[in-house]
């Protein structure tokens, strides 16, 4: 792309394209004479999507962005971790993942609008915006009460009991979302009178008496089999689940039933989480190696790869 031939090749590829997705450092395309305005003028139906750290303008405009650093800057780390502990990076690159999904949503919205107007448009998704958007319920809570949200471990800031508890076998996460579920949980655990305790009658009261309720549940669950009690609670309509390791998730028959593990020859990967009834995802080949299909893609577009051999990525020697 830094060479004239590379820029020419890109423009040729965009002639019949619906979407151009890029995440170059802000200003890079403009330096090459490929600004969004130029692309819109040359390809009026093109959807140009840019993924960046902070966007092109504003106080942080044009700064590079990295998932962990943006987790810190958007406050996600400040609410992640044990109560009284230090801010903690989330164990998965959550902002990278959500920004990618936001980019897809924006592209689909633009394609839907283009079906009516016939015009393309510029779509932007930034790590910073995506990070801020995930602060739920912390941001709404702050807007309402002005209190800066703090770390609370596994506890939900608004719902109780919504936390992890030790059992004799594995930790169990209880996600008791309403009063009916709470009463049912108490019955399943053999303490129906706890469901009538005036301290725990409503979610608001349970929040006021969090520590007392936790002590009760710790005593009830400590000697139970976490997996078995989870099955009993779920069967009764109480949301919960054992805290599992990655290998246990991969081995779970339901993971395979849902098509979330894909095996092709000696390759194993993760399946598509979105299921379509008429045009479901299919897996016909393993992921390609670097530049494996460059020649085929260009040939389909009527472009001779030999004409651009100097700027095309070289296939690795096997």
From TrEMBL:
Question: Mind telling me which Pfam families this protein's record contains?
Answer: CoA_transf_3 (PF02515)
Q: Which InterPro entries match?
A: CoA-transferase_III_domain, CoA-Trfase_fam_III, CoA-Trfase_III_dom3_sf, CoA-Trfase_III_dom_1_sf
Tell me its EC number(s), please: 2.8.3.16
Q: Which domain of life is it from?
A: Bacteria
Per UniProt, the enzyme's principal EC class comes to: transferase
GO terms, molecular function: formyl-CoA transferase activity
Keyword Transferase on entry: yes
- Name of this protein: Acyl-CoA transferase
- This protein's encoding gene: frc_21
User: What are the top taxonomic ranks of the organism?
Assistant: Bacteria, Pseudomonadati, Pseudomonadota, Betaproteobacteria, Burkholderiales
UniProt KW Kinase keyword: no
Q: Which organism is it from?
A: Bordetella trematum
UniProt keywords (A-Z) are: Transferase
Kindly list any coiled-coil regions of this protein: none
């Amino acid at each position: 792309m830094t060479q004239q031939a590379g820029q020419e090749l890109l423009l040729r590829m965009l002639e019949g394209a619906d979407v151009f997705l890029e995440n170059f450092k802000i200003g890079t395309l403009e330096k090459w004479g490929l600004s969004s305005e130029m692309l819109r003028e040359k390809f009026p139906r093109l959807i140009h999507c840019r993924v960046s750290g902070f966007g092109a303008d504003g106080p942080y405009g044009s700064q590079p962005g990295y998932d962990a650093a943006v987790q810190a800057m958007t406050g996600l780390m400040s609410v992640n971790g044990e109560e009284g502990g230090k801010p903690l990076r989330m164990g998965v690159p959550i902002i990278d993942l959500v920004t990618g999904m936001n980019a897809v949503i924006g592209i689909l919205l633009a394609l839907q609008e283009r079906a009516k107007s016939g015009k393309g448009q510029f779509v932007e998704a930034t790590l910073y915006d995506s990070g801020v958007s995930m602060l739920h319920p912390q941001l709404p809570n702050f807007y309402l009460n002005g209190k800066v949200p703090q770390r609370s471990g596994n506890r939900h800031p608004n719902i109780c009991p919504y936390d992890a508890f030790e059992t004799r076998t594995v930790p169990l996460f209880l996600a008791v979302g309403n009063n009916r579920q709470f009463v049912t949980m108490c019955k399943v655990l053999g303490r129906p009178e706890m469901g009538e305790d005036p301290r725990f009658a409503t979610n608001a009261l349970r929040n006021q008496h969090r520590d007392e309720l936790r002590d009760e549940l710790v005593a009830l669950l400590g000697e139970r089999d976490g997996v078995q009690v989870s099955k009993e609670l779920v069967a009764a309509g109480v949301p919960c689940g054992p805290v599992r390791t990655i290998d246990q998730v991969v081995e779970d028959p339901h993971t395979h039933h849902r098509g979330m593990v894909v095996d092709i020859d000696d390759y194993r990967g993760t399946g598509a989480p979105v299921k379509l009834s008429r045009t479901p995802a299919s897996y016909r080949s393993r992921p390609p190696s670097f530049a494996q299909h460059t020649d085929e893609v260009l040939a389909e577009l009527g472009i001779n790869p030999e004409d651009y051999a100097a700027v095309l990525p070289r296939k690795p020697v096997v």
